[in-house]
Amino acid sequence: MSKFVKKVGKVEYYEIDGIRASGIIPYYIKDNSVKILINLEIRNSKLVYNIIGGKVDKIDNKIEDTMVREFNEETGFLMSDIMKKITKKDNFLKRKIYFDKSKYMLGLLNVTDNVIWNTLPDIYDKIFEGVESFNHRDSEQLKWVDLFQFEEDRSYLLTMAMNKIKYSNLFRKFNPKKQPLFVD
Fold it and tell me: Does the model's pTM come out above 0.85?
């Protein structure tokens, strides 16, 4: 159950078990390469790549509720029916990573390499082309990227998340350089 933390102006902040925000990184593995889904959004008046996620809301009962709600909002609810089916399974997230400093919980969602997931960025672009953001739809673009090759402008949170998951036992074996990776 979410707990009220503070109010700044008209914005109310909530948390669940000390976690104030969360997100999901869908991923799949193909041809010994790890693909992750991220979004492009405006942060501090600048376009940067980020994790698909956001803040805990007063309606969220558990942190997974925040993850799924934010994922649906930021992907224009295009995958909401599929997410309903996925979330009915126990332990639907392959792994969760907690970031203590930012009080952020990241869930890794193993999705299959298929047309539905692969074309999500293209469908999103076509549907929302020229449409202003609405109802928390913060994503300007969705993009599948290679975990070990992506070097474009990204948020601090996405940088830290990518470094942690690259080094994790789940993905370390896919590191093409087979050298130690930086982990903060």
Answer: yes
